[in-house]
Write a structure and sequence with these properties.
There is one protein chain. The protein is of the alpha+beta class. It has helices at residues 10-40, 104-107, 148-154, 158-174, 179-184, 186-204, 224-293, 295-311, and strands at residues 44-47, 52-57, 60-66, 70-73, 80-85, 91-98, 127-128, 134-145, 208-210, 214-218, 316-321, 326-331. The chain starts with 9 loop residues before the first helix and ends in an 11-residue tail after the last strand.
Length: 342
């Protein structure tokens, strides 16, 4: 059997090479075109609702700040560079410089974990107050970027700077207040710390605006037993004050209810006394001329009248004979008008 290879003409191999080269050049053109398109569209960015965009041109600040959300069209990098800043979002910064170190059990949320016997300087943070007491303080700062250019390029590590400013403000205000004032007047403490912190920020021009600082204060954990005793004593004090106020109000109300009756009785008694005094005066005015004429008769009459009144109120009368020293007892039952038959 005679097997013969097909004869390949010279021009067919050349055509195949040409087709391959054309395909390579086509793919190269397509890829290059895509690269050019991607290069020109590389300056397109999208801003979220909470973001602002800062455009740099050849690495320099162009002071062209885009504040509205949506697409930003800039020249390709490295001509332009778009930096997005979360300026409209509130960011939170917490400082634990003056807070005690938490153990693993405390971080896990175990409230029954025993506290260390003493504070450890250099490990446990603490704050010395104006009356030389020790407190623990933890500050939470919420801020927003007001000037993106200053925030990005004027300082490095802005959060670290804000944290140091807040620590200095807490330390400065605490040195002017007692521990009791700080614990009882937390709003005043937070307001003063915020004012000092705001002055520091305004003086440096970091480009942020802050909310009032939220402060959490605590006595050293080693004083928990004594603090519980103080809290219980204060609760008893408040309870006693409340009971005393309640008793005082009840007595005032009771006295107020009795007062009209007492005043009425007093006025009635005064009226009777005045009427009796006037009657006695009138009687005296009538008897005095008679007394002037015959004093002995008037004396006996007044004496008999008084004796009658006295004897009407006694149960027994004793008459003693001075000569014979004899005692004569006369029983006179009291004449009680309330027991007389009607």
């Amino acid at each position: 059997m005679d097997i013969r290879r097909p004869e390949i003409e010279p021009h067919q191999g050349l055509d195949a090479v040409k087709d391959a080269i054309r395909t390579i050049f086509f793919l190269f053109r397509v890829g290059f075109g895509l690269l050019v398109i991607g290069f020109f569209f590389s300056g397109v960015r999208y801003l979220e609702q909470y973001e602002k965009g800062v455009i740099l041109r050849f690495g320099a600040v162009d002071h062209n700040i885009r504040e509205e959300p949506g697409l930003i069209v800039a020249l390709p990098y490295p001509i332009d560079e778009v930096i997005r800043v979360p300026a409209k979002r509130t960011q939170t910064l917490e400082s634990t410089t003056f807070w005690y170190k938490l153990s693993d059990a405390e971080r896990a949320g175990d409230s029954a974990a025993p506290a260390p016997a003493t504070l450890k300087p250099g490990i446990d943070g603490l704050l010395v107050t104006g009356d030389r007491n020790i407190l623990h303080a933890r500050g939470i700062l919420k801020y927003r970027v007001r000037n993106p250019v200053s925030f990005l390029f004027k300082f490095n590590k802005v959060e670290l700077i804000l944290s140091k400013f807040m620590d200095n403000a807490i330390l400065k205000v605490a040195s002017t207040m007692t521990a009791e004032e700080m614990l009882k007047q937390k709003d005043l403490l937070a307001r003063r710390v915020t004012e000092v912190l705001q002055k520091s920020i305004d003086g440096t021009g970091i480009g942020v605006e802050i909310d009032p600082v939220d402060l959490r204060l605590s006595w050293p954990r080693q004083l928990s037993g004594e603090l519980n005793a103080v809290i219980k004593a204060n609760q008893r004090y408040q309870q006693n004050i409340s009971e005393a106020n309640l008793y005082a109000r009840s007595q005032e109300n009771e006295s107020a209810s009795y007062a009209p009756q007492i005043i009425s009785d007093a006025r009635t008694w005064a009226t009777r006394r005045i009427s009796r005094t006037r009657a006695d005066a009138e009687t005296f005015r009538k008897l005095y001329p008679l007394y002037k004429k015959n004093p002995e008769v008037i004396k006996r009459t007044i004496h008999q009248d008084r004796m009658q009144r006295i004897l009407s109120k006694v149960d027994e009368i004793f008459i003693i004979d001075q000569d014979n020293t004899r005692e004569i007892r006369i029983n006179l039952p009291r004449n009680d008008s309330s027991q007389q038959p009607k």
